[in-house]
Write a structure and sequence with these properties.
alpha+beta; Gyrase A, domain 2; five-stranded mixed beta sheet; 5 strands; about 60% helix; flat
């Protein structure tokens, strides 16, 4: 019974330690994750007209200068600009009037080295009309409350209630005016997002797209295997102290069992079985007289 309790305790402790080590390895050696968005695709500004264009240039600096000059010709303003010299990539965002938006986008598509182009248009007229209607309604309410507060027959509690309503109405009017201004700005201007890459010179031993995809898949698989092996090794190393303790406890339990077995006195039945069996042999006795008769 004591041995069973000890074994159950050891198994419970081992399970807890293994669970903790697995949770630890997830934090220390996380498996690779796939990023769905780049850092430039998050929290992008919005406009009624937007264009996404990818270009490829022989020299990155020359391409950026040319694109900037073309956008300036259409009254464009540089909203964002990021150039990565190590990766030979550039990210540009231009804000320009809606009237010049389509001409500017068409010019960029005709520069050369076009890899991708997409234009999106969103009609915000209905939203603008709804906000304008809400603003006019709040203005009417403000005028009505102001004329009511100007009366001389109102009591003090009623006056305080009217003032609170006026404050809430003015606050709502301020929020709606801000929305209308932002919406009008989006309707008056368009945004062009440009990604630019420097054209790479292909080596003589150029790999096809199929070979490159196979190599990338093999490399990803190898990286995943290395990560899994690292997790297993880390788990084994973290479990070594526990395994040592389990082995020592098992040895101690085994030795105590052997000691108790040797110290236990043998029972009466066991002593009877263990006693040696003595067989008494009857030796023939030769009488003297008989012997003398035989000799004669």
């Amino acid at each position: 019974m004591r041995l069973t309790i000890n074994l159950l305790t050891i198994i419970l402790v081992a399970a807890l330690v293994i669970t903790g080590s697995i949770l630890l390895t997830r934090e220390i050696c996380p498996l690779p994750q796939v990023l769905t968005l780049t850092k430039y695709q998050k929290n992008l500004p919005k406009a009624g007209k937007m264009a996404e264009i990818e270009l490829e240039a022989k020299k990155l600096s020359t391409g950026v200068t040319r694109v900037t000059d073309e956008m300036m010709r259409f009254e464009g303003i540089v909203s964002q600009k990021e150039i990565n010299g190590k990766e030979k990539t550039a990210w540009l965002v231009f804000k320009l009037p809606t009237a010049e938006f389509e001409n500017a986008a068409r010019t960029l598509e005709q520069i050369g080295g076009l890899r991708h182009s997409r234009l999106t248009t969103e009609d915000k007229t209905d939203v603008h009309m709804k906000l304008q209607t809400q603003l006019e309604s709040l203005q009417s309410s403000t005028a009505r409350l102001t004329s009511t507060s100007a009366g001389t027959g109102e009591k003090l509690p009623d006056m305080l209630q009217i003032e609170n309503k006026l404050k809430c109405t003015e606050r709502e009017m301020g929020e709606i005016k801000g929305k209308i201004e932002r919406l009008e700005d989006q309707m008056a201007y368009g945004l062009i997002f440009i990604r630019m890459y420097e054209k790479k010179i292909l080596p003589l031993s150029y790999e096809s797209a199929f070979q490159k995809s196979i190599n990338n898949a093999c490399q990803d698989g190898l990286d995943n295997c290395i990560n899994i092996i690292g997790i297993i090794v880390f788990w084994i190393l973290s479990s070594l102290p526990l395994l040592t303790v389990i082995l020592l406890l098992w040895l101690i339990t085994f030795l105590f069992q052997i000691r108790d077995k040797w110290r236990k006195p043998p029972s009466k039945k066991d002593s009877n079985l263990a006693a040696p069996l003595i067989v008494k042999e009857d030796k023939p006795e030769i009488e003297a007289g008989v012997g003398s008769n035989i000799e004669s």
